[in-house]
Amino acid sequence: MTTTAVQSKDIVRNGVNATKLAATIRAIEKQPELAQFKFRARNQWDTGGHNVATVDSFYGTCQEMEHKQPFRFDADEPAVLLGEDNGANPVEFVLAGLSGCMTTTLAYHAAGRGLNIESIESEYEGDIDLHGLLDLDPNVRPGYREIRVKFKVKGDADETTIQELLRKSPVFDTLANPVKIKVEVEKV
Predict the structure, then answer these.
(1) What is the pLDDT of residues 64-114, one digit of tens each?
(2) What is the DSSP track for 63-105?
(3) For residue 81, what are the CA distances in angstroms to 38, 78, 154?
(4) Phi-psi category of 106—alpha, beta or left, where left has phi over 0 and alpha has psi -120 to 50?
(5) 3-state class of 188 per DSSP?
(6) Quick one: which of 54, 30, 152 has its CA closest to 102?
(7) pTM of the complete model
(8) Sequence-separated contacts (24+) of 95-101 with Cβ below 8 Å
(9) In angstroms, rounded to a whole number, what is the distance separating the alpha carbons of residues 73 and 43?
């Protein structure tokens, strides 16, 4: 995507309003609490492996906010894993979330650095051993053992810069580094 002008002052690069991005960064530098966000999802089980997550509100820039519409994510398992294939399975959502975040991060950071991106394509693949999930081997973790990512990027940035920018992805960071997960259960 090329650099374009919006109104007379705004510079849009890679589909990102770089002028507003710079203004956002300056605002956060002046008022650090603006940077604190809380994202949320709710989930309702249907049957078997099928459940529906809803994302509709979040906290950011010191206020509660709503998306312009609720987003629903149907999760299920494929037939081979005893599901009805009514949606991607949750570990596929992890790959999709990683793909979206790494791509967006690259486009935004490149725009902020004045680098034009013409195209971004990526592929994601991860290995899971069901021995962990099914409690068949206590030495096998239930989650991904490894995730492999392959990017094809056409634009101004060199490979080293692209690697650096991709690692700024919040989802990449969340998966690559331990994060506390607090679980509360209420029996009803």
Answers:
(1) 999 999 999 999 999 999 999 999 999 999 999 999 999 999 999 999 999
(2) EEEEEEEEEEEEE---GGGTS--SSB-HHHHHHHHHHHHHHHH
(3) 33, 5, 38
(4) alpha
(5) coil
(6) 152
(7) 0.92
(8) 95/124, 95/125, 95/126, 95/147, 96/124, 97/171, 98/124, 98/147, 98/149, 98/169, 98/171, 98/172, 98/175, 99/124, 100/171, 101/169, 101/170, 101/171, 101/172
(9) 9
Q: Are strands 50-60 and 42-47 parallel, antiparallel or unpaired?
A: antiparallel
pLDDT band of residue 16 (cuts 50, 70, 90) is: very high
Dump pLDDT digits (tens) for 145-182.
999 999 999 999 999 999 999 999 999 999 999 999 99
CB distance 97 to 88 below 8 Å: no
**Cβ(10)–Cβ(22) under 8 Å?**
no
Q: What are phi and psi of 159, to 5 degrees?
A: -60, -40
Residue 15, SS3 per DSSP: coil
Q: Which residues have C-beta within 8 Å of that of residue 34, sequence separation ≥ 6? A: 27, 28, 61, 62
16 bridge partner residues: 13
What's the whole-number mean pLDDT along residues 120-135? Answer: 98
